[in-house]
Amino acid sequence: MKHTLAVLVENRPGVLTHISGLISRRAYNIESISASYTEEADTTRITIDVEVDDELQLEQVVNQLSKLIDVIKIIDLTHVDSIHRDLALIKVKANPKTRSDIVDIVEIFRAKIVDVNRETMVIELTGEESKIDALCAVLMDYGIIEIARTGKIALSRGPIAAKNM
Amino acid sequence: MEILGSDVVLESLKKEGVEVVFGYPGGAVLPLYDALYRMKFPHVLTRHEQGAVHAADGYARATGKVGVCIATSGPGATNLITGIATAYMDSVPLVAITGQVGVSLIGKDSFQEADICGITTPITKHNYLVKKIQDLPRVLKEAFYIARTGRPGPVVIDISKDVFNDKIDYIYPSEVKLRGYSPVFAGDEASIELVFEKMRQAKKPLIFVGGGVNISETSDLLRKITQLTRFPVISTLMGLGCISNADDEHLGMVGMHGTYAANMATIECDLLLGIGVRFDDRVTGLVKDFAPKAQVVHFDIDPAEINKNIIADIRVVGDLRWSLPLLYEKAVQYDCREWRNNIHTWIATVLNWKQENPLDYSCSDDVIMPQSVVETVSQLTKGDAIIVTDVGQHQMWAAQYYQFLNERSFLTSGGLGTMGYGLPAAIGAQFGLPEKKVVLFTGDGSIMMNCQEMATAANNNVAVKIIVMNNQVLGMVNQWQRMFYEERYSHTCLKGSTDFVKLAEAMGVRGLRVTKPSQLRATLAEALQMEGPVLVDVWLPVGEDVLPMVPANCRLDQMVLGGADR
Asked: What is the value of pTM for the model shown?
């Protein structure tokens, strides 16, 4: 089962080494990880998608991560009403014949075209992982040149911040 | 007043109560060594950085204080790695200070540059790279706090040479502010209530003592609890000494080379109280059949240890200095007579196991049996020495046959199993406890892995007694080759390669040799009485196995037994 963890850590050099080092040492199965600074300058927020066999394994992941001195707090957002988003940039072949078809598809997915030239266009899409996968599947027919995707980020709905949960 | 970064380090060590540091100089720590010289700070020069880190470890284990070692950048720092990993696996409080190249040279593959924070991340409780002197006092304060509190462990501080040479108006912080670190002390009192209820109902209870009791120095309290309850006790390698071996109810060490009684009790018990243990694979044998009939209670300070290897039915997360007093209070208030009636049959059973199947070996008039070496030292020192070991057969014989009476009296690399740990650790222990008799059991394999430290012992007149259990083979691997590889002794024979007496004498350590059982006691007694460091080369037969033994992936009751009549 997949769990989404919001990990609040000190914004200091070496923090990501400590996190990634622990994940590899304990052989945890991480599907995605994304990190950035937050509303507090000294805090970094890392969203980790982890695949675990059961609750016991999840508890191990959380407890081991919590042991890191840099880790301030970990919140499991899996069962919290929350918004989960990935961002993808997709460069796809688009000649004058196919361009309008692709524009239709982009509209259906509520994606955005952010670059166009004679041979290709770049599409930007935010959404849940499955939605991005679906767009990629459709665009395959036109010829995808390259894709860049972020890991997932997640935020709970409602007024309470993760740090206060 | 502004002082140099190197002086900041030493002033801070003084404030942390550091009495001695172990180290080895080099380019990047030249300013720090200059400060050691100027300030006359007590420093022990080892002959290898690995010696320095193990010595700091031995000092820490023997005294409970934070051990400190110093090494230079690059190879100096990488030579610490084995020692840091050793300390990490056994939760030893350690601060390792390494020099780093100048700030502008970092990341340029400079001379003697290594990314020591990157390298030590998986084997430290925490580490720091200090590139600005403004950070130095805070980092030192945090490092000592992190190393010694909660579940102790090693912390590395990598300090750029520029920082040692820079100046600052020195103020040592009075407290640490770490948002992500607040070690657990008190846990959930209701869990203690629950445990006590289980203890009252248990028909076959068993107390299982681990290194956490040594670390938290709660053996007095635990002894009071066992005296009240009369519950039988088993111990891990790291827990030896917490309960006196002289106690009837102490069944000895459990696990791969555990006693018959301890292993059988684990299989048969209905309540297992694991106290400061981590259910290592050398203890559990086949995990799924470990304590198959028992409800497991797990006392530990580290929540990540709960359910890591063995599922606990009840967890008591907190410092043993919190949980054991509460448990004792409950036991004192309770009328234990009814209770003892409950477990009367069980006690009789385990004592019978202990009596019928003691640790045993065949005696000989011709050759010195390794077990008898440990027994003799045990008798001569009356169980009161600090026993240090290397790793291998001699380590297990020391664990089995020495009659430990006190906590912190057995220093051994349990988790990592580091050959070469023993001699420098013994030196460190002797520095920490100058009044104590420190005896090292080592092997003809292990001693060679840090034999250069005999020079350190000789130079500083450190009175360690080095007993080389010389059986001409890498005994433990040799034993496995005998038992599981059809006697194909691949590269485990060391026969005749080294004259240990000459080696000792060459480094200024007195050397003795004993080859006959009739001379054993007199020679060991002589060595123990001598001033200064002594090495005794004890010639043993090849081919003696450490028994009992639970082969890999077997249940604890599937032991290969030893003994005189096997």
From this structure: 0.96
